[in-house]
Amino acid sequence: MSPNKSSGPATSEPFDVDFERLEEVIPRYDASGPRYTSYPTAPSWNDDFGVEDYRSALQRTAERTSSEVALYAHVPFCRSLCHFCACNRVITRKEELPKRYLEIIDKEIRAVRESIPSNPTTSQLHWGGGTPTHLSPDQIQTLFRSMTDAFPLSEGAEVSIEVDPRVTTQDQINTLADCGFNRISMGVQDLDEKVQEAIHRIQPLEQTLFIADAARKRGMESVNLDLIYGLPFQTVDSFSNTLDKVLDVSPDRIALYAYAHVAWKAKQQRSFDEKDLPDPTTRLRIMLMAIKRFIDAGYIYIGMDHFARPDDELCIARNERSLRRNFMGYTTQSGVDLLGFGPSAISELHDSYIQSSRDLPDWEARVEDTGFATMRGHLLSDDDQRRRWIIANLFCHGELRSEDYEARFGGNFSSLYADELTRLEPMLADELIAIEPNGSITLTSVGRLLVRNVAMTFDAYLAEQQKSSQQLFSKTI
Length: 477
Ligand code: SF4
Description:
The two termini are 26 Å apart. The protein has 19 helices and 21 strands.
């Protein structure tokens, strides 16, 4: 192994990367593209998809599957605005808003529950935002009861929450642990003071340490930290200093996201002077340095921004080819339908995507009216389902076995996707992928970092979306 190569521990396949080669290859693939938390991606969903379509999809799902569901609640409130943020959030300190939100989301949960003729339990529950710990301990209990009274937790359920260490208290951690939350995820982003000032998020390391420690003491199994590269004033050295401190926290999982500069739609990002953002080469070097540091520290690259300790269930699931991915991220829960609640929440059923209104007052009014706030959705065609399966295999397993495709869907993979295989040839030449004579595709370590670009080849909607005058997706690097 050359000195600039690293490999992960033996519990997963090696993640051998020649970092010098990576620095040469990656800029050729620095395009805009989807993150593929869904296929088709949201810009191709249909605004005519309404409440009755959602109800029918729930009926079909209950007839077809499964005794378990995954639940997501979007808690949109935050106390102050981080200037990099492109999430759907409401900045407020008013107490009436969360109070009313809890009444409305309870109605929404009940309406969905009443539309499902079976009695599913919950194998995965996640709260995101916004800031779920904007809710007081009593409010946390209220929301938790609304969800689990309707859909009781399965034995051993994965119960997770995103918390903001700046506003989270010991009382809230105690309440979460008492409810049964067993995983916690914290936004850290960057610990450099100059960067924190620029992004309007002052968060001393002590706050993160306190919450990590409190969660572990209360028996939570997993502590995840989120970081962002590409923020104003970041340099390779400054981010390396951040990583020294982050690795000292010993997180079980780390997510390293690229800052998505989408100032045309996220107005607060206009407060950044673009000259203060790291240039593309620096941004790339920060990313590569961080990946190398995580791998050298013993973390396994799960895929698409995510790293975990070798004994983490995500690593085990990846090794066993049972890893899945949904709107909440990578998960070990396979074949489970996802029901989303709250403004902008997305539900994913076996043949449909459904999204609720993003606007808090509109979401409230719609739920008051019908119990649902469906804003748009998509009924997957047969071709959509095939391509969704292909893209999920690339993201979760780093490969696509043509024999698995043919066993599941029929037909001859390499004939059906002859055009796509031809378009993959430059990636073959750049050693992002290997292709077998039968059309099976395996991503190399470099290719796993560029999985979005490989997946884009199989996206039947992308060419049309790219004609839009609006930039719809962030950069893939
Ligand atoms: S706390 Fe999270 S959701 Fe709220 S503004 Fe900051 S980054 Fe966005």
